[in-house]
Amino acid sequence: MSVTDPTAARRDRLSVLAKAPAERLRALWSDHMAQSPDHDLIRPPEIGTVMVRGRAGATGAPFNLGEMTVTRCSVRLATGTVGHGHVQGRYREAARIAALIDALSEDGQGDALDTAILAPLRAEALARKTARATRAAATKVEFFTMVRGD
Amino acid sequence: MYVAVKGGERAIDNAHAWLAEERRGDPSVAELSTAQIREQLALSVNRVMAEGSLYDPDLAALAIKQARGDLIEAVFLIRAYRTTLPRFGSSHPVDTAAMACDRRISATFKDLPGGQILGPTFDYTHRLLDFALAAEGLAPDAAPQAEADGSSVPHVTGFLAREDLIQTEPDGPAIPRDLTREPLDFPADRPLRLQALTRGDEGFVLSLAYSTQRGYGKNHPFVGELRIGTVPVEMDIPELGFSIDIGEVVLTECETVNQFTGSKTEPPQFTRGYGLVFGQTERKAISMALVDRALRWEELGEDNSGAPAQDVEFVLYHADNVQATGFLEHIKLPHYVDFQSELELIRRLRAEAMASSRQEAAE
Q1: What is the pLDDT of residues A81-112, one digit of tens each?
Q2: Measured between alpha carbons, how far is B148 from B96 in angstroms, rounded to an integer?
Q3: Is residue A143 part of a domain?
Q4: Residue of A55, A71, A75, A90 to mutate, interface with B, max B Cβ within 10 Å
Q5: Looking at chain A, which residue has its C-alpha nearest residue B117?
Q6: Does any domain span residue A46?
Q7: Is residue B248 classed as helix, strand or coil in its secondary structure?
Q8: B178: nearest CB among A64, A129, A135
C-alpha cells in the first residue's frame, strides 16, 4: 500500500497498529527486530480509556455511548525522533512497540517496517473482515414470490 | 446514639475462602478459562460490556468468571475497575452508516439496498434443546460463505428522509453531558437519556419498552432497521495534530420508525426512536429505541399519558442496575442500632396502648 502524503501515511500506520491483535504485533516485531533500538520513554506505557460517542438517530446530537480500554506510549529514539503508539485494550508492550515502529518509520525505516509488520497486519485484518463479510453474504435473504396456481 | 461495633473478621475471611472454593466448583471438572468465556459466552460478555460501560471483552470475561456468572455483579466489578483508569479523551461520534454489518434487517422494507442480512441469529431457530451441544469435542460445520459484493448498506431512515417523510434528527452540543462525570440532573436532554439507556439494565429497559407496546405510552414502532457489526473508533491525538483509528468495536443499532407528528405548519412526518449498544445486544437495542421514543413525548408535542416510560425521572433514576443493587442489597447488612430504636419504640407504643385500654376497661 503506497500512501504518499506523510500525514496520511502516519495516520494509516498508527490506525493499523491500534487495531492489531497485540500478540500478533509482538510476534511480527520480534521477528523483524532482534532487539529494540535504544530509546527513552517520554511517556511510559499507560492504560486508560477513551469515551466512545455515537449520534442520536445515527445523524443527530452526539452522546456518550461508553468507554473502551486503550494503552498509549511515547518514545524518543537516540536520534531524537519521537514516536507515539496507541493500541486498543490493555497491552503495555504492544503500545511500546507501536510507538517504536512509529518513531523508526519517521526516521526513514518506514518501507522496511511496512513490508515486515504493517503489510501482514493489513492483510490479516482484511482476511478477518472478509471471513465475516462472506458469512454475512451467505445469510442474505433472497425473496421469491409465490405464484398461486389455479 | 451511634455505637460502633467490630467483629466478624475471621468469619468474613472464611466466608470469602469458601466463596473462592465454590466459585471453582467440583475440581474434577475442568476449570473455565476467561478466553473460553469470551469466545463461548459472548452474549454475556456483551451485556457486561454494555451495562458496565466499558468495551473490553477480556475484562468482561474475567468479571463474569469472578462473579460466578452473576452478570449484575460482573457489571459492578467492571464499573469499579473503570473508575481506576484515566480517560485519554473522547472519540468522534462513530459512523454507523459505514458499519461492516454481520446482520442488517428491516421490518419496513423488503427490498432495500444492501439487502436483508440475517447474520448469526437465534431468530427462526426452534428453541429446542440441542443435546448434541452436551457432548464435547464436536466442532460445528463451517458456515457457508458467499461472495460479498462490498456494496454499501445505507440507513433505511435515509430513504425516508430523502422524501421528508421522517423528522430529521437535530444536532446537539459537540460535547454531550456525561453522567459518569457529573450527577444526573434534570431536565435531561436526549444525549444524556441515551447514555443512561445504553448502560441501563437490560431487563428494566426491556420491561419499559414492552409496557409501551402494551399501551402505556404507545408509540406504534416499526423496526426500520436493526444492524450489528464492526465500526472503527476514531479519535484526535493532540500530540499528533490529527485523528487516528484508536480501535474498533462491535455495536448493535436499532432505528425505529414511529407514528406521526404534524402541525398546522408542518405536514405529518414519521418520528424516530434510537438504540445503540456495545456488542451483539439486539434485545437491548430495540428496547432502548422504544423507550427513547417514549421519552421524546414533550419535544414532539405529544400528551403525557402518565405512563412510566414517559417519566424521564422514573426511567433514568431506576435504569442503573449497579445503583439499584447497591441500595437494595445494603438493607441486608447490619442495621442493629436502627432496628433497636424501632424495637424500643414499638414496645413503648404497645405498652401505652395496653395501659390505656386497661384503663378504659376499668372505667
Answers
A1: 999 999 999 999 999 999 999 999 999 999 99
A2: 19
A3: no
A4: A55
A5: A140
A6: yes
A7: strand
A8: A64
Q: What is the tally of structural domains in chain A?
A: 1
With CA atoms as reference, report the closest residue to B148 among B188, B185, B114: B114
Contact yes or no for A66 and B97 at CB 8 A: no
Residue A113 lies in a domain: yes
Kindly write down the DSSP assignment for every residue of B313-341, as one continuous string.
Answer: HHHHHH--HHHHHHHHHGGGS--HHHHHH
How far apart (Å, rounded) are the C-alpha atoms in residues B228 and B105?
Answer: 9
Q: What is the ipTM of this complex?
A: 0.93
How high is the pLDDT of residue B334?
85
Q: Are the Cβ atoms of A68 and B194 closer than 8 angstroms?
A: no
**A48 within a domain of the structure (yes/no):** yes
* Residues in chain A closer than 8 A to B191 (CB atoms): 56, 61-64
User: At residue A1, does pLDDT exceed 90?
Assistant: no
Distance from CA of A44 to the nearest CA of B (A): 14
Residue B138 confidence class, pLDDT cut points 50, 70, 90: confident
Partner-chain residue, chosen from B103, B192, B199, that has the shortest CB–CB distance to A66: B199
Flag if B249 and A52 touch (Cβ within 8 Å): yes
Domain that holds residue A17: 6-138
**Cβ proximity of B227 and B101 under 8 Å:** yes
Pairwise pLDDT comparison (B292 vs A143), residue with the higher score? B292
